[in-house]
Amino acid sequence: MGTLKDKTAVVTGSTSGIGLAYARAFAGAGANIVLNGMGVPADIERERSGIETDFKVRAVHSPADMTKPAEIAEMVALGEKTFGSVDILVNNAGIQFVSPIEEFPPEKWEAIIAINLSSAFHAVRAAVPGMKARRWGRIISTASAHSLVASPFKVAYISAKHGLAGLTKTVALELATFGVTCNCISPGYVLTPLVARQIPDQMKTRNMTEEQVKRDVLLAAQPTKEFVTVEQVASLALYLTSDAAASITGANLSIDGGWTAA
């Protein structure tokens, strides 16, 4: 795996879960990191300083709100100002809301499209000039199995994730001759804090054990009946930053235990 020494990675939604795993994987390969996301300040500081201690790189936190284009541009500028460049951009921030379409609150639609899709457009737009000038860059977005298939009651999330796949293809074509690749990773169910928090509620409402909820509810569509791990997703992203992956661009890479094979 090629080293990322002297490279800088901006990862949105990286204070926990998949995003934090990406940040730690890139730091482990030598990259400086711009973290972004919400949370308790003390927790964010612990993760930020932990990256510096564990990997001997530098890490800063941008509190940019992913619904605000100007703040997204400032986040990219922070990386460029602090470390001299933004070489890797990972669009990972995302939220979810579940409801039948006729009851789906319009403000939830707007928020999900803003955070899960529009934020990626604004971040890419800000990062591309520097990548083109340096003739090297890696743009990666966390899509989802839901960028390829649908489930009921998740209209905004699925629309946004399908949109990310289209954004990825377009950007890949525009940057194909500049040494910049653009891909998305589509995980199935990953056991993040967000998913784990749903398990007790499901156990109660469905009168099931924890094992039954995991297997028959959360992993119903996942043939392996195993959660994807954050480390597996981060390893795929790290591979995409390597020279070995220079010809992979415009791709939507499934890591979903066979979900979308069915």
Notes on the structure:
The chain is α/β, with parallel strands linked by helices and 262 residues long. The protein is built from nine helices and seven strands. Strands 3-2-1-4-5-6-7 form a seven-stranded parallel β-sheet, sandwiched between helices. Helix 1 links the parallel strand 1 and strand 2. Helix 4 runs parallel beside helix 5. The radius of gyration is 18 Å and the shape is globular. The model has no long low-confidence stretch (mean pLDDT 96).
Strand order of the largest sheet: 3-2-1-4-5-6-7
Number of separate strands: 7
Question: How much helix is in the residues?
Answer: 40-55%
Main β sheet profile? 7 strands, parallel
Q: Strand content of the residues, in percent?
A: 5-15%
The dominant shape is globular
- The overall pLDDT average reads 96
Secondary-structure class: alpha/beta
Could you tell me how far the N terminus lies from the C terminus, measured between alpha carbons in angstroms? Answer: 32 Å
Work out the helix count: 9
The arrangement of helices and strands along the chain is EHEHEHEHEHEHHHHE
Poorly predicted ranges: none
Please give the radius of gyration in angstroms.
18 Å
